[in-house]
Amino acid sequence: MTFKPTKYTLKCCSTGHLFEDAGWSLADPECNCPSLVRAEYAQKKFNPRKDLDGFYRYADWLPVRRTLEKSCAPVTYRSEALASHLGLENLYITFSGYWPEKGARMETASFKETEAYSVCARLPEDNRKIMVVASAGNTARAFAKVCSDNNIPVLISIPADNIDALWFTKPLNDCVKIIASPAGSDYFDAIALSDKVCTCDKFMAEGGAKNVARRDGMGTTLLSAVEVIGKIPDAYFQAIGSGTGTIAVWENNLRLIEDGRFGSHKMRLYPSQNDPFTIMYDSWKLRSRTLVPMTADEARAASAEIDAKVLSNRKPPYSLAGGLFDAMEDASGEIFKVSNDQLHHWKQKFLELEGIDIHNAAAVAVASLESAVREGKVQKDEIIMLNITGGGEERAKTENEVIYAKPMLVLDPDLPTEEIVSEVLKLFQ
Question: CATH code at 256?
Answer without folding.
Answer: 3.40.50.1100
